[in-house]
Please model this.
Amino acid sequence: MTWGRPDPAYFLGGRIRLNRAKAEAVIKTRIADRLDVSIVEAAHLIREEMGTRIRKEILRFVESHGIGAAGLSEFAVVVYGGAGPTHYSDFAKGLDFGRSVATPYASVFSAFNLDWVIIPILMTILGGTGTILGPILGAFILSGIFELANMAMPQLHPIFSAAFIVLVTLFLPDGLMKYITGHKEGVLRRLPLFRAIVRGT
Model:
């Protein structure tokens, strides 16, 4: 705010006013005075440090997936969230992305995270529709499989997950619950609690 980003008078379209004086007082007391610099210089140092830390985290993440810094030119970076575009110029230094993408709706774009949209659907498909127990069963199994795959082979995790989804679609199109309830001689079918749940759903 010491630089006017965001505008203290126009936060949330002006519905909430930010106190620039308090922000500057905190920066002065905790950082500027200790480093013997001005408030503006202290704010600049904060942004630089934040950018450096974010940049290191990005490199750590991509390297854990087998992609070096030199390979970033083959990828696009989508910048979103309330502060993503604001800090992009700080953390993108030295990161040679092929393309950078931001939208006018960056602050609410986080709500459309792909995982939160697709994974619940996959859990329901795996467990089976038409029952309460199906999606719950799918959630437990899919979460466990994804976590194990991510720990055991982080670089191949996306490929493994995609293969698993294809196999489920091909061999269990109606979900696990349909398969389990269709085999009356199965072990689970003989359990009184399981029969009660199936009848109840």
In short: The beta strands are 76-79, 99-102. The chain has nine helices and two strands. The two ends are 55 Å apart (CA to CA).
